[in-house]
C-alpha cells in the first residue's frame, strides 16, 4: 500500500491506496482509518467528497469482497 498524508482534513488522516491500483490512472479508491470510522474517497478526486463507514460495516464489506474474489478466481 502507498500512503499520503491528507493535510487540512480533520485529524490529518493518512490515506492508503492499494498497491494493486497501478499508476495508469484507473478507477481507484483510497481509505483512511480513524477511531471507529473508515473514510473512503476517489483517488482521482482527492479534494472531492469522502464517504465514512463505521469500522464494523467496513470490515463486513471487505470480508464480503474477499469472499467474492476468492469464488471468482
From TrEMBL:
One Pfam family it belongs to: DUF397
InterPro entries for the chain: DUF397 (IPR007278)
Domain DUF397: 15-66
Protein's UniProt name: DUF397 domain-containing protein
Source taxonomy: Bacteria, Bacillati, Actinomycetota, Actinomycetes, Kitasatosporales
Amino acid at each position: 500500500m502507498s500512503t499520503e498524508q491528507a493535510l487540512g482534513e480533520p485529524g490529518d488522516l493518512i490515506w492508503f491506496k492499494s498497491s494493486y491500483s497501478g499508476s495508469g490512472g484507473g478507477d481507484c479508491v483510497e481509505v483512511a482509518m480513524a477511531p471507529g470510522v473508515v473514510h473512503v474517497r476517489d483517488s482521482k478526486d482527492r479534494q472531492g467528497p469522502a464517504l465514512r463507514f463505521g469500522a464494523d460495516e467496513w470490515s463486513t464489506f471487505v470480508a464480503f469482497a474477499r469472499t467474492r474474489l476468492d469464488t471468482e478466481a
